[in-house]
Design a protein that fits this description.
about 60% helix; dGTPase; single chain; globular; dGTPase-like; mainly alpha; hydrolase; HD/PDEase_dom; Deoxyguanosinetriphosphate triphosphohydrolase
């Protein structure tokens, strides 16, 4: 793959050149478009790990996304400086700030497709089509690839869909869309090799398959099969930024909530940090547990950022050739320490009572909402009269009703738009809406 094509600022569907202004590059515009978008604002009330109202220090999807974006920018700029040194032709068109902005923008958007109730929400939506009688009835009404999409709701693919929906008008550059797509393959992929990181999940639904092909062609991504491509190199940095933040910051949250002792958290952080006398001196000057934990978190993120940047640059040639397909955090020198942090997080944080409770809630609320609103969509398609479903249809955004009515024979499109509606709800909105339509609250 060629860096000049990989850094394309073209916006698919618009004429060249990109509408960049002198004060902001096209990639900086991407960042601004995402941060001012409605889907991004909704992340403020979506669970990262812990229920939202319990503690001031607990991260939401919004704060997590901002932090991942910050780390992503650092990774992109650090790597970009060396890439530009190695490729003189690039220096005529790009700076390291451009590469930093691409990674920052893709990182900022990386969780846009996540539903309410964290990762449990993804499973709950999938289970609706696997286990619920209302969901199961559509198995014979959509094709094989579409059914695979429905049975395996994937936040990454939902995020790619959101970024490309005309409703939000984002129209991001091809480079940002490529860097965003960590899994450049579709759900129905019989040759999937899960030992390859890029094929562990999938990155687009059938509804966006043609859009991804256009993006891949623009960027010069290498096809690895009819259903998959080699990753955009900067997707490795977006993934690393996310891996660094969720492992380190979830540990910080666990310490703040008292699920992990400060002594244990300090030991785990120190497994990552390369301490110097100055760093130890500053740590010993801090007095509160929160300050010390925050300082250790910052040092750990800094060291991991340097490790992943160096690793990327060491393997740049293999990444461009498509022969390197492993998460940077999985092979960096601190990988054993990171694995230990994740093991402790699984045992003491992700399985804590409040996390289990919110996941259990999601498995009840989301299928319940889907059952009622999918029935509503079916009634709209069949133009049946029902006081109940006529009322529920009034709760849809106008674009859903219009789309269903103009595609009366397309069950997949109807289901896709209703999943958009449900997965786009915040945690509190989903719970409130469920209670109201079930007559539990008014």
């Amino acid at each position: 793959m060629d860096w000049i094509k990989l850094l394309s600022s073209h916006r698919i569907g618009q004429r060249r050149p990109s509408d960049a202004h002198q004060s902001r590059s096209a990639f900086e515009q991407d960042f601004d478009r995402i941060i001012f978008s409605h889907p991004f604002r909704r992340l403020q009330d979506k669970t990262q790990v812990h229920p939202l109202p319990i503690h001031d220090f607990v991260h939401t999807r919004l704060t997590h996304s901002l932090e991942v974006s910050s780390v992503g920018r650092s990774l992109g700029r650090t790597v970009g400086e060396v890439i530009l040194q190695r490729n003189s032709a690039l220096r005529e068109q790009f700076t390291s700030l451009d590469i930093g902005a691409i990674v920052a923008s893709a990182s900022l958007a990386h969780d846009l497709g996540n539903p309410p109730f964290g990762h449990a929400g993804e499973n709950a939506i999938s289970d609706f089509f696997i286990e619920n009688a209302v969901g199961q009835q559509f198995k014979g009404l959509v094709d094989e690839a579409e059914w695979e999409d429905l049975m395996r709701f994937e936040g990454n693919a939902q995020g790619f869909r959101i970024l490309n929906k005309n409703q939000y008008g984002l129209k991001l550059t091809a480079a940002t869309l490529g860097a965003f797509t960590k899994y450049p393959c579709q759900a129905l992929f019989k040759e999937r090799d899960k030992s390859k990181r890029s094929q562990k999940k999938f990155g687009f639904f059938q509804s966006e398959a043609e859009m991804f092909r256009l993006v891949a062609d623009e960027l010069g991504l290498i096809p690895s099969s009819a259903q998959s491509w080699i990753r955009h190199p900067l997707a490795f940095l977006v993934e690393a930024a996310d891996d660094i933040c969720y492992s380190i910051i979830d540990l910080e949250d666990g310490c703040s909530l008292g699920l992990v002792s400060y002594t244990e958290a300090k030991d785990l952080f120190e497994g990552v940090i390369s301490f110097s006398r100055d760093k130890l001196g500053k740590l010993n000057q801090l007095t509160s547990r929160e300050e010390k934990t925050g300082y250790l978190r910052a040092l750990a993120i800094g060291d991991l950022t340097r490790e992943c940047s160096a690793l990327f640059l060491d393997h740049e040639k293999q990444i461009l050739e498509g022969t390197f397909d492993t998460a940077l955090a999985d092979v960096c020198s601190s990988r054993a320490a990171l694995k230990e942090i994740i093991n402790v997080s699984v045992e003491k944080i992700y399985r804590s009572k409040n996390v289990v409770e919110i996941e259990a809630s999601g498995h009840e609320v989301l299928p319940g909402l889907l059952e009622e609103f999918v029935k509503t969509g079916s009634y709209l398609m069949q133009k049946k009269n029902s006081r109940k479903y006529d009322n529920l249809a009034l709760l849809f955004p106008a674009e859903i009703v219009t789309t269903i009515e103009t595609n009366p024979q397309n069950n997949y499109i109807m289901l896709r738009y209703i999943i958009d509606f449900i997965s786009g709800l915040t945690d509190r909105h989903a719970l409130s809406l469920y209670r109201k339509i079930k007559g539990i609250a008014f």
